């Protein structure tokens, strides 16, 4: 399996292009290529495989956001970038768990990535707030909002799904839901 | 226009559902009315947030799907060669363990240094009369009066009564490691005693005579001095550097003991092995200290634990705190010979037996 992973490791340019094109198969190749490195990092520094998974997936999200926002310059190897993000994220977690003993076993060179993580944290906060607001919103509002704004379903579909007598009623309901969601979102801490 | 109607218009505008004419009119409104413009931006931003939330959720699901196809266990086995629990513990916590170990070593050394343990060992000798130091044969063979304590004792020291009912204080180092303890009064009567409590920090031990043949000593002739004794004060002690009581006298030569040890006084006094645990009295018959040790290679000097630490030690130990040490001496007006005659029977030889 590992031989297969190594042989399918994408070049950095391939990877960036794949991310920009939203290629699912490229995501898979990237994921498989760099996970062992991160697993090794986390396992060697007081973590388990679940920790490695969490940290790695967060790093992939950071990478995707960075590449898609267009300001990703390949100043160093993709591998170094992913390693550095994971290293930073893991150090932060160790601190939060008060497990950090003052040193970390490194297997790679790494680079400063603090700035990328600041914008990531901001997005993370928004995500958590939205998650909380939608959780509090309740049904049928939650599904209506998700169907319309996330899954892009038409009002006609939604109207039929929820049994509204006409599309106008459904629309009014949707706007009421949206206003409530907004209120809940800004109440989140 | 109601809130909801406005929202509907904004959404139609943003979704590109307006025809050209409608669109132009709305853009005019937006241009003229800053509030409407702000609402448009706000709505767009918020719906984008919902979209981003959805995308992230979808992306995370995708990542989880990919992750589930990876054989994590196989990867783990590859670079974790089944280390034992101890190795893993060490790997995960080695820095903390190292720090803890260095702190421990530092603390132990520091404590030993501060308590003078390291240096005392070389420069000060305890005054226990170990049996191998006694010149054997000199007075052996005198017929014991009445009964005798077993002859195979491992060391002797001195102790003195702190109550009339048989509580005796001596040095911790005299009875340390003792299997059994006998005390013997000036007349040579031996009594079995037990160690009630010890205070290693101050080198003190409290014994209690448990022998059925023991009768009350009567009120103590000496008092215990609470305060500090002044430099130059004339002092004397009675102890057992040999089988008989020996009087030594001298004066207080320093307020502190070895290397600034504030628990002890230094005295100019010639004492020997066996004097350990003996009472140090001033000319008024007050106990001002307990003989503890002497410096190596310095003739005529000795250390004594200050009486205030003896009092403190007794007061802070619940097993003996009920013992009230009187500060009133009954020998204040007496001369030295009369004083010794009165207190002789309150000073005991402490015989220690080891296994």
3D structure, described in words:
Chain A is built from nine helices and no strands. By secondary structure, chain A is an all-alpha fold. The longest helix of chain A has 24 residues, at 114-137. Chain A is elongated. Chain A starts with a helix and ends with a helix. Mean pLDDT of chain A is 83; it is low at 1-7. Chain B has helices at residues 3-14, 20-32, 34-69, 72-79, 85-114, 117-123, 172-175, 307-315, 336-343, and strands spanning 124-126, 129-130, 155-161, 167-171, 180-184, 190-199, 204-209, 223-224, 234-239, 246-254, 264-269, 279-282, 286-295, 301-306, 347-353. In chain B, the strands form two sheets. Chain B has a six-stranded antiparallel β-barrel with strand order 9-10-11-14-13-12. In chain B, strands 3-4-7-6-5-15 form a six-stranded antiparallel β-barrel. Chain B is 36% helix and 25% strand. Chain B has 355 residues and is an alpha+beta fold. Chain B has three domains: 3-69; 72-114; 130-353, Beta Barrel (Thrombin, subunit H). Chain B starts with a helix and ends with a strand. In chain B, helix 1 (3-14) crosses helix 3 (34-69) and helix 2 crosses helix 3. Mean pLDDT of chain B is 83; it is low at 133-146. Chain B contains nine helices and 15 strands. The A-B interface holds A 1-2, 24, 27-28, 31-32, 35-36, 39-40, 43-46, 49, 53, 57, 60-61, 64, 101-103, 123, 126-127, 130-131, 134, 145-146, 149-151, 171-172, 175-176, 178-179, 181-182, 185 and B 3-4, 7-8, 46-47, 49-57, 59-60, 62-64, 66-67, 70-72, 74-76, 78-80, 91-96, 99.
